[in-house]
Amino acid sequence: MKPKYTLDNPETRVYVGDCREVLAGLPAKSVDLVFADPPFNWNVDYGAWDDARPRQDYIDFTHEWLDGCIRVLTDTGSLWVNIPDDTAAEIVIHLKSRKLHMVNWCIWHFRFGQNRTGNFIVSKVHTLYFAKDKEKRTWNPDTVLEPSDRAAIYGDKRTFEKDEYAGVRVPFDVWYGQNWGRVQGNNKERRENHQNQLPEVYLERVIRCSSNEGDLVLDPFLGSGTTCTVARALNRRSIGIEFNPKNAKSAFERIKAGAVRIGEPATTNTFFAERIPKARRKADS
Ligand SMILES: C[S@@+](CC[C@H](N)C(=O)[O-])C[C@H]1O[C@@H](n2cnc3c(N)ncnc32)[C@H](O)[C@@H]1O
Fold it and tell me: pTM value?
């Protein structure tokens, strides 16, 4: 299968079709990082794609695309999946059965979930981080550091005297903060007519920590194009696969236009942010 849209420097390819078929046509062990944000089977209108399948059909589909991703992943590669409560366990069990290693089970926490009264309001999605080989995987923690609580909140000067990681830390496994919300309303990242667009900072963290410049990043469910847009901004080659031709076209336009937040701090410590000035005043006095 040929890509429908391409760009050079770095090479970017967008395929239109079912990711299972496109993945089957790619060389084995050729992709350094896979990020997947699949349809959740929540009856979302994705055009021709049926997002309300019988449960077993959806699980079979899930296993098929996961196996396609595993086949194309290099031995140093990582596979990340964005998935809500109802299918997280099935994905974890399947990836473990394929001998992938779970590196982290992260949570993406957002506010402004859909209001409800019958049970607790959903304010998270699981961000599952697996690798073919836990030790050999590409892992660049220094590219995703954030201010530590000691530095940002408590104004503890001793943290700046450390030889390593002075005033900073590798982020927690629960992800939230400024620019980490769902992309809605008048958010400057927002693309019209797209469902479930992820924030750029989310992909920035994943791509920076799990790949190097020049590596090949693949997203089997491209949607509005977030993964390829951020990959390009970070000088990674990328492949996006999208079933809906309209989404693919719009994603490509976004990829060409470029990312809008890269360069802004992606990892601000916003925990008790309002205390920062007070703590700093105290430390400085
Ligand atoms: C949850 S959205 C992805 C959103 C994306 N992460 C973003 O930030 O915009 C899922 C996308 O997968 C597409 N899709 C559904 N089934 C597909 C399949 N079998 N192959 C490729 N794309 C598919 C849908 O059309 C939809 O655009």
Answer: 0.93
Q: Is 196 in the pocket of ligand 1 (CB under 6 A)?
A: yes
What are the tokens at 147?
Answer: 């201010």
CATH of domain 5-284: 3.40.50.150
Ligand 1 centroid – CA 250 distance (Å): 13
Output the 3-class SS for the chain: CCCCEEECCCCEEEEECCHHHHHHCCCCCCEEEEEECCCCCCCCCECCECCCCCHHHHHHHHHHHHHHHHHHEEEEEEEEEEECHHHHHHHHHHHHHCCCEEEEEEEEECCCCCCCCCCCCCCEEEEEEEECCCCCCCCCHHHCCEECHHHHCCCCHHHHHCCCCCCEECCCCEECCCCCCCCCCCCCCCCCCCCCCCCHHHHHHHHHHHCCCCCEEEECCCCCCHHHHHHHHCCCEEEEEECCHHHHHHHHHHHHHCCCCECECCCCCCCCHHHHHHHHHHHHC
Are 209 and 202 a contacting pair, CB within 8 Å? no
Q: What is the pLDDT of residue 269?
A: 65
Q: Is the pLDDT of residue 246 over 70?
A: yes
Angle 64-70-72 (CA atoms, 0-180°, nearest 5)?
Answer: 110
* Contact by Cβ (8 Å): 73, 132: yes
* Pair of tokens at residue 125: 């999605």
CA 45 to ligand 1 center in whole angstroms: 11
> Above 80 in pLDDT, residue 281?
no
